[in-house]
Amino acid sequence: MSLIAKASGGSKFPILEAGSYPAMCYAIVDIGQQYNKTFNNYAQKVIFMWELPGEEIEIEGEMKPRAISETYTNSLGEKANLRKMLENWRGRAFTQEEMDGFDLRNVLGKACMISVVHGTKSDGSPYAKVGSVSKMPKGMSVPQKTTNALILFDLDAPDALENLQKLPEWVQNRIKESETYKEKMRPDASVVEARNDDFAVIDAAEDCPF
To answer: Where are the domains of the chain?
Structure first.
């Protein structure tokens, strides 16, 4: 199960303003072993996606909450950014038992505060990115569930190839760049159209301790 963390193009929408936003995690996507040019190695990566309930934008004639994502190395090592993010989000450190195998699906549908900052692309244009993630302040309310259906994509799952078609195109492209995809997905395999029930909608109200 590659979604167990262990200790070991330009947008057509206006840029999201820098600042703090309440957010809810609606997707966790395993994108496999990705090559890092800086360190000349491969690392298991995972994308977290959050929707921002207080911010909406029109998409194909329908108002939907804005979203933001961040990619992390799937590690709970002492210096790992994923560990820092999750511990800030939950408001306490991981126990040794949790670090031996923390199931990332536990955070699906959970609320947090996200600090959005601006970065600069290679062409000089600005873009919004996640600066930090923290625990929701006491007394602040958020919707009981996300607007988007909750998505968990595991590249090691038997039906990964079919479910791949349900993901945004830019995420599919990231996955197809991975060594995991190249090794485990037969290049000549026929793509089967995904059914509407391929991704189960996870009840955000169910008891899923984080």
So the answer is: 19-185
